[in-house]
Design goal:
By secondary structure, the protein is mainly alpha-helical. The protein has a single domain, classed as Cytochrome Bc1 Complex, Chain D, domain 2, CATH 1.10.760. The chain has a two-stranded antiparallel sheet. Strand 1 and strand 2 form a beta hairpin. The longest helix is centred in the N-terminal third of the chain and has 22 residues.
Length: 109
């Protein structure tokens, strides 16, 4: 019985450690940013029509609640977060799960 509990506890701990890695799969995130058209306005390290992913990460990486706010920003759009010039258009085809994967990856840039 004790061995079973230890095995199950170890398996749960292992999955808990693996979960962040799965959530931030860089290959999937890059695929989604390309497929959903993000790269038309954003680049990883340089400003384009929109702020770079690196600049977004630098601004929001350590802010409480930023991940949820950015997921909403991707899905529903927004204005004036980066000055008058930049408007984020709503991306209605992006699911909440897709936006979460992309935002998690962007915040690692």
């Amino acid at each position: 019985m004790y061995k079973s509990i230890c095995f199950i506890g170890g398996a749960v701990a292992g999955l808990a450690l693996l979960a962040p890695a799965l959530a931030a799969d860089p290959g999937r995130a890059m695929f989604l940013t390309d497929m959903r058209g993000c790269l038309e306005c954003h680049a990883i390290g340089s400003k384009s029509a929109g702020p770079s992913f690196s600049a977004i990460a630098a601004r929001y990486r350590y802010q409480t609640g930023a991940r949820d706010m950015l997921v909403d920003k991707v899905r529903f759009g927004g204005t004036k977060h980066w000055g008058e010039r930049f408007n984020m258009w709503p991306q209605v085809v992006v699911t909440e799960e897709e936006a979460s994967v992309m935002v998690e990856w962007i915040l690692q840039q």
